[in-house]
Amino acid sequence: MPERSRFSLLLVQVAAVLTASIFVLNVVLHRPVIDALLFSLAIAVGITPQLLPAVVSASLAAGSRLMSKRKVLVKRLVCIEDLGDVGMLFTDKTGTLTEGRISFMRATSDEALRWGLLSSDPEGNALDSALWASPAARTADTGGYHRVADLPFDHERRMSSVLLEKSGRTLVTKGAPEAVFDRCADVPAAMRSALDDEFSAGNRVVAVALRRADELTTVTAADERDLRLAGLLVFLDAPKRGAAEALDRLARLGITVKVVTGDNPAVAVKVCEELGLAVEGTLTGAELDRLDDEQLATALATTTVFARVSPQHKARIVGVRRRTHGDVAFLGDGVNDALALHAADVGVSVDSATDVAKDSADVILLEKDLHVLADGVMAGRRIFANTMKYVLMGTSSNFGNMFSAAGASLLLGFLPMLPSQILLNNLLYDTSQLAIPSDEVDPEQLAGPARWDVGFIRRFMLFFGPISSVFDFVTFGVMLWVFHAGPPEFRTGWFVESLATQTLVLFAIRTRRTPFFRSRPSLPLLLSALGVIVAGAILPATPLAKELGFHPLPFAFFATLAGMVVCYLGLVELGKRLFFGRAAPPAGPKPRIENRHLRRRAARFSLRR
C-alpha cells in the first residue's frame, strides 16, 4: 500500500477509535445523545489535517515558480516532491559530464578521413557534424562519388554503412571500433594498440572499413563482412567545466550518480576519473545480457559506469533499481532515452532534447547542467520538509487534544468544549498554518532523500501528543481549582490554551535543532502564528463571545498561560532530544512500493520492431 494511503488509514483508525470512545463515554455518563454525537464528530474533524491538500498544493506551486527561475520546468507538479526523494541518478555522459561540443582531432590515415567523410552527412549526428566542420575536411578528396544506398546506425550493430559508386561500387562501414573490427578480415596489432591508447586518453573513436561491392544494389547487415580497415577517426569531448563541483554537490545531497552511455567503457571511466567521480566498476551491454534481474540488482551496488548499452538496457537498469531500492531519476535527451525516462520515478530531459525525450520526461532543464538538477532536488526536499511540518504538528497536537477531550469527558459533568468552539479552534489553527509553504528549512534536513514514513509519523504522534495533553490537564486543574470556573469560563480557558500551545509548538517542531530558536522561521509564518494567537485571546472580549459561548478571562489566567507555554515548549525541546536521539532513528532503505506515483501523460511504448 502506498505510504500516503497508509497515512490516511492511520488517521481514519485513530479518529474512529477515539471518536467512538468519546461518544460511548458521554452516553454512559448520561449526557444528551445529540450533544455527545456533535461533540464526538467535531473531535473527529479536529484530528483531520484538512489543510494538507492546500499546504501541499501551495508548496508545489511555490516550488514550481522557484524552479522555473532556476532554469527547471516542471511538467507534473507532484514530481517536484518525487525529485526530492531521489537517491540515485542515472545520466548520459555527453553534455552532462562533458561539454557536449565534439571536435575532430585526427585520423590515423588520409584514407580513413576520406572514406569517413564520404560515409557521413554534414548535418548528421554530432560526430558527423564535427568531422565535416574540421579543417581537414576542407582539403580531403571526396569528389565524384554517388551514394547508391545506405544502412543507418542502430544500437545492436553499433555501426552504419553506405554504398558508394565511382568506377565501381564500394561499401563503407563506420562505427564502434569493436563492432567494425569484428567484421574486418584482418586488424593489425598496431591498430588495436592505437585504439587502446585513444580510449585510455578519454577520446571517442570511430573505425572506418570498406570493401569492393560491385554486386550490391542495397545494403543489409549481412553485407557488412570481409572488410578492410581503413583507419580510425579520433574525436574529443572535453570534461565539462563545473561538472566536478556539481557531482560533489549531488554527493553531499546523498545522491549516487551512475553513468549510462553508448561509448566505450574506457572512455567513460576516463571522464569520470577526470571529474573526481570514483568508478567502482563497469558493465557493458553484452555483460548485462548475461545477468538476470536479481544478479543485476546486486551488480548495481558496485557498478558506476554502464557502457555500450542499448535503449532496452537503459530501461532495464532503471527498472531493476526502482523495484529493489529507493527512487530513481534518469537524465537523457535522445530518442533512445525515452524508455528509460518512462521507467524512472522522475524522467529528466533538456530543452534541446528530441521531442520524444521531452514528451517522456517529467522535468525539463533549460540548461543541461547537473547544478540545475541539484537545485531541483533541493526544491523538492524543501517542499517535503514543509509538508511534514504540518503533518507532524497537526497529528500530534490534534491527537493530544482528542486524548484530553476523552479525559475531560470522563472527569467533568459537562462538555469540555462546545462543538462550535472545537471547529472554530480548528479553523484558526489551520489559518496559522497557511504560511508553512513559505517557511525556511534547515540545511541538515535537505542533506538526504526524504520519504513518507507512516511508522515515523505514528511514533511522533504517540510521543508528542501526550505531552500536549499534560498541559491540557494542567489547564483543567487551573480553571477548576484556581479560578473556580464554571462551564463557560472553563471552555474559554481551554480554547485559548489549546490554540496557543498547538500553534506555538510549531516553532519547536519545525526544526530538529535545540533550542528551537537556533532555526529562524519565515516572517509570514511568524506573523500568521502570532496573529492567530492574539485573535484567539481577544475573542472572549468581543461581541462575538456570547454567540460562541465564551466568557471573559481574568488577566491572571493569561499570566498563568504564559508560564505554561514556556514550560510546554521546554518539555517539547527535551522530548525532541529523546525522540530524535533514541526513539526514532533514521529509517533505512525501504523496498520499492509500486504505483506510488501518479502516472505520466504519455503511454509507455517500445522501440522494438
From TrEMBL:
Its main location: membrane. It catalyses: ATP + H2O = ADP + phosphate + H(+). It is a multi-pass membrane protein. The chain crosses the membrane at residues 7-30, 36-61, 460-482, 494-511, 523-541, 553-572. It is found in: Cell membrane. This is HAD-IC family P-type ATPase. It holds the Pfam family Hydrolase. PANTHER family: CALCIUM-TRANSPORTING ATPASE (PTHR42861). InterPro entries: ATPase_P-typ_cation-transptr_C, ATPase_P-typ_cyto_dom_N, ATPase_P-typ_P_site, ATPase_P-typ_TM_dom_sf, HAD-like_sf, HAD_sf, P-type_ATPase_IIIB, P_typ_ATPase. Residues 414-578 form the Cation-transporting P-type ATPase C-terminal domain. It comes from Amycolatopsis alkalitolerans. One of its GO terms (molecular function) is ATP binding.
